Amino acid sequence: TVPASDAVVKTTCPYCGVGCGVLASPDGQGGAGIAGDTEHPANFGRLCSKGSALGETLGFEDRLLHPIVDGARVSWEGALGTVAGGLKKIAEQHGPDSIAFYLSGQLLTEDYYVANKLAKGFLGTPHVDTNSRLCMSSAVAAHRRAFGSDTVPGCYEDLDEADLLVLVGSNTAWCHPILYRRMADAKAKRGTTIVTIDPRRTQTGEEADLHLGLKPGSDTALFSGLLVHLAGQGAVDRAYVAEHTAGFDAALERALTIAPTIAATAAATGLSEADVGRFFALFTRTRRVVTCFSQGVNQSAQGTDKGNAIINCHLATGRIGQPGMGPFSLTGQPNAMGGREVGGLANMLAAHMHFDNHEVDKVRRFWSAPNIITGEGMKAVAMFEAIARGKIKALWVMGTNPLVSMPRADEIRAAIAGLDLYVVSEVLATSDTARATAKKTVLLPALAWGEKDGTVTNSERRISRQRRFLKAPGAARADWAIMSDVAKRLGHGAAFAYTSAAQIFREHAALSAFENDGTRDFDIGGLADLSDRAYDATAPVQWPLTKRGPDPRKGRARMFADGRFYTFDKRARFVAVQPPALAQPATAEHPLILNTGRVRDHWHTMTRTGKSQRLSAHRAVPFVEIHPDDAARYRLTEGGFARVTTANSSAILEVTISDGVRPGDIFAPMHWSDMTASNGRVVALVRGTPDPVSGQPELKATPAAMEPV
Ligand code: SF4
Q1: Ligand 1 atom closest to Cα of 177?
Q2: Is 152 a domain residue?
Q3: Probe target for ligand 1 pocket from 11, 37, 50, 608, with the most ligand atoms within 8 Å of CB
Q4: Of 61, 159, 614, 672, whose CB count within 10 A is highest?
Q5: CA distances from 133 to 455, 470, 576 (A)
Q6: What is the domain count for the chain?
Q7: pLDDT (tens digit, 9 = 90+) per residue, 612-638?
Q8: Is 0.95 exceeded by the ipTM?
């Protein structure tokens, strides 16, 4: 049921991983007033520019309102029959692993759960990946290497209680604005020192106590140097390291080969010795340190090592799992964490289970799955390459726009054209991805934010409800319902007889607790018996919520406080990281290094924020930032236009001259698409070499050339 027009509905912002609570007041005309939820512990009533403009982005303009097959409107019956029939035929002819799913951190956990169950348990294809691969999969890999599990150790209160906040590869002021407000409050109230580490001097860097504008890709040198410095200063917590960790000596030995001194660290990072020394001294003498890391770390061909280099320094000092200290991955998307929980990444199974025989069998038995997969599938970059090679014949994309956001997007458009079956579950009829076509193309209208019900998990492991406050437009349906109907047509009706999001959530919670004796971190078994009413009323809560604890409905703010981790011996692992090296260094033909990112007021490919004139006014056209010296060298003028060319593609962008970028670097935001700016797609310029451990593609360092147009 849709709430009455005078109701105030508590829900969660659909943009970033901060996961702010929102109060929506529907007006009965398809719109709603929006305010921050003062009771939500992520934001206590605050909203940033994007969240507060949510009411301006509602409406049916450009919505996909009916199923479409090969350009013609059809009934749901016809569309679902086409999808089920096509998948069945392709699985029979080419095997189930010729089918792939590309999901999204925008999906609700319940949608994500059903997609994984359908693909990995019933269709029998391991090739399920998500745009979260582009967002935080290196943080996942770093967590798993260090902790034996994908566990974020801390909580937002740690940001309030830290004396030193180190922000690595994060323009927090723009990309996680409400968390940044908490950091600024901590600075005002307790004198917290803020250090930023980023090749660009962003707004966050402008306001920091110390900004380290290091060379692109040199983070592992900086944190290797810090590990050496901590050891040299006697700041390593030897008792903690001996009792709770393994691998310290090897990690330190490797760090000594990378950055043995402050001078060597400065040389490797392009920083001054004075700045390196100042940062090292701050970190050494301050016990309450939180190191937040985000896309500047993750979106790298060495992203996993960068994450582990940071975690190494926290393990060495025992600064983890305690108030005001710990490494903290800032998640990009609203439900990237929920996707990890259900196994939405190709290298995860479900409920944080891995692909060992024991856990595969657990999931098989829990689902009564006839076609359980037994190993990892292809990660996003490899998946789209396999489509181009013809190995993947059917692709189902849900809630994401890879034609704009994936590296080498031009090649992806060509690859999709060769698919036998291309299914897109979408809100918009006009996204670049919805406009692409294959031999058989099916567009399925999905519910949008405000129309659907479910849960999301934010960066601090907090599960919150997204609630419905608007009517479904046209024939749009929930993603879980669409997939369940396809499953029924494939003969799996009993396993997909879902009638509500609450029912799916209970199953997901029960799976997390299934034969879990405490060896798995993700356990929300305490929520497995929620009634529909209790599910609807669920207040934001942090996992784990285990039935083994004293109160199964009470979450836990911090993990690892007892120094016990999820490895077989309960010890955390130091990782001996590789020396920094760009996957693609600059060349004579492409002498600049292109860094991509975001602006303050847009989200991803602008399919929602682009509807708000207020948000679009911040930066109206796609642009590129360049240092004044380079602008002079390449005869570029402020406000003029330039062609940015890489080995993959070219784009025409407005020139912004700024000494916030290093000489030799350029920066361009990733939001614009062919739908919003001709020749403005920036990620299409990027080659996207994947990290060898996580598979996350490099989006921060692509050789490029510039010329005026
Ligand atoms: Fe939404 Fe993130 Fe802004 Fe909060 S900080 S209102 S979650 S975009």
Answers
A1: 5
A2: yes
A3: 50
A4: 672
A5: 20, 31, 23
A6: 4
A7: 888 887 787 888 999 999 999 999 999
A8: yes
